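Quick one, T. Sequence first:
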Amino acid sequence: MSVRSLTSAVMFAALACTALPAVSAAQERPSYGPRLEGFEYPFKTEVLNLDSQGQKLEMVFMDIAAEKPNGRTAVLLHGKNFCGATWEGTISQLSNAGYRVIAPDQVGFCKSSKPDSYQFSFHQLAENTKALLESRGIDKATVIGHSMGGMLATRFALMYPETTEKMVLVNPIGLEDWKAKGVPYQTIEAAFEGEKKTSFDSIKTYQQKFYYSGDWKPDYDKWVEMGAGMYEGEGGDQVAWNQALTSDMVFTQPVVHEFAQVKVPTLLMIGMTDKTAPGANRAPEEIAATLGDYTQLGKDAAKAIPGAKLVEFEDLGHSPQIQAPERFHEALLKGLNDA
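Structure tokens:
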């Protein structure tokens, strides 16, 4: 399917499933290409060529070697409103601790291909990720997923338990089944229209409200600009269309019902002020009020996943690795070292 060219579209309203009103930026913001051309990643990027669903696609990734290897590999899976680059601080911490780190941009996101027509599924993205690891000669890895990446990490661990040494879920979405709780379905076309109404300011407004509980630091602007800038100019429509497709994937493919089947050691890291709940704006008010309660969702997930360990950050939100990196990474490394 092809879509007409538009001058401005961004992906973030699709995850929120909220068409927040566009607000003119107070200052000029950077503009990047639809594959983040012009945005510099913290480490060298490489490309895996994929033959997937009858198409030639490119999966961009970073492969960072440790100076003093401990023989272990960590795979970092980004969220829907994030990229491999957002893991910058975590990559450095893990690399310094001896881990080889693989940080891909999934197909449909960031620097990777954005196909006109693609059946997005967590199974497909897990298969793509497995192909990446095989191409790099990696047969076992710790899989760390944030936000939507937590749903993907869970699917990967379910599909490839022999490849998954440990699983870490950082404020994963999908700890509840929104459609089963009464959130109405949104068509892909409607999601696409919502994408087109988003701006730097609306992204920031959403993240302030749901991610950081109003605790905004200037450093966060870089990551908002990364996403917003990708949708400026020619090609922005294709980014928006891919994000509409992946919104559908997130909503219709819950993993929460399969937590009991996870067979790998699991660490849950939960910022408890997080309120992320895709589609809450479409739900009746009494239902919306019950969604995104990470103070309870983390506990429920820890009970459902056999042997899972739970680390809670009472004062942190959706991205604890960005909001309080020292505390987060100390807890992460401790959790990885625990038997």
